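Q: My collaborator sent me two sequences in one message, no labels, and asked for predicted structures for both. Can we handle them in order? The first one she listed is below.
A: Yes, handling them in the order given. First sequence, followed by its structure tokens:
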Amino acid sequence: MPNWSACPVCEVVIDGDPWLTMDPLTWHRCGACDLVFKSKEPDGFLTDEHYEEDYFTGGSRQYDKRREHRIGKAQRQLDCGREFTTGDRLLDIGCSLGYALEAGRRLGLEPVGVDLSETARRACIEQGFTAVDGRLDALPFPDQSFDLVLMKHVLEHTPDPKGALHEIKRVCSDQACLIIAVPNLHYFKGRFARLKHRYYNPRHAGREHYVYFSRSALTKILEESGFTVRAHSKALFKKRRARDGLAAIIKEGLWFAVMSAWQALASGLSLRRELFVIAQLRNDP
């Protein structure tokens, strides 16, 4: 039975009682960096087969629905990342059914996807994209291959997020940007009703997730992995868009004002389901 006793962010060994037990899973909380991580699961509890066809069409996920909505959302997220880098080479880690790859194509980027799911790769290839088999700890690309890396709800799927970020850093070009979305540890349902919430339920997200980040924990692991956080939400005034004239400036200004107000309210009331972060590779001497 796999057993993780140390926090995967600050590496402090947690010896106390479990923060939560939902048979057969055990979860611990690190008070030092405000992270919850899975500390125990049975052998063979999660296999690669879990991420095949039923994963994309079953339950509440329905990844095969609302395609245009998902593409539009990915375009807005990629636009945020493009504020900090000029390169066009996009890597979508956990490319799913190709929404972000299509968003990148519409934005004039050069998208490449990687996913451990054969179902996902096949769907992307059928749309004309390059999608290859790969894992977070061994990306099948040369050093400095990409200028923009997208990870939407992927980093929580590994018990070793530091190792994953180290590998991602390897394939990033100088000044590359990393766009990350992960579940928010402090979302009110997971915070106040954790015994009932899907985060930790072994029949739902608890089966496939290993870590739940707070804003401070996510910032800490990124900074320690060689990245500088440039934005903590999608409330970003996009200068690229504003270059199109006065109407574009007004539109971006209104969007920024509304999003800033909503993000502040949602954070204060624990309504943010996910954390969204843009980080840029730091070229340390």
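Q: And the one she listed second?
A: Here it is, processed independently of the first:
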Amino acid sequence: MTARIVHKVQITIKGRIELLDTTEAEALLRSLSTALTYTASTDQGGILNTVAQYYKIEVLTLLGRCRREHIAGARQVAMFLCRRFTPASYSEIGEYFKRDHGTVMHAVRTIEDRMVCNRKVKSDVDFLSEQIAEARKELAA
């Protein structure tokens, strides 16, 4: 006879306690993760998360002071997308990224210029823009 260990996860939904096995809990977390990704993708934090995932950089690194080209470039893309997809001013975006409004203005101009002459930057921004636009459509539906 073989023993099978089954782990149970306790969750509370609207005041009711439920016990789920690990398979059910994983499925629930996956569906919640997808829903949260779509919800968050349309605000500054969500845009930052989307950019961080795309470039495989930690969010805290993007918000940090690192000036390495690939990190600073990803940060500039995130600022550009925040300006494009949110009603936030340069100052508000700068506050979120812990930067001056002039830094955000520079980032937006830089990404606009790079999109003209650098196919990789243009394709990155286009792809990320599509993801954010799709998330907005999902929210509107």
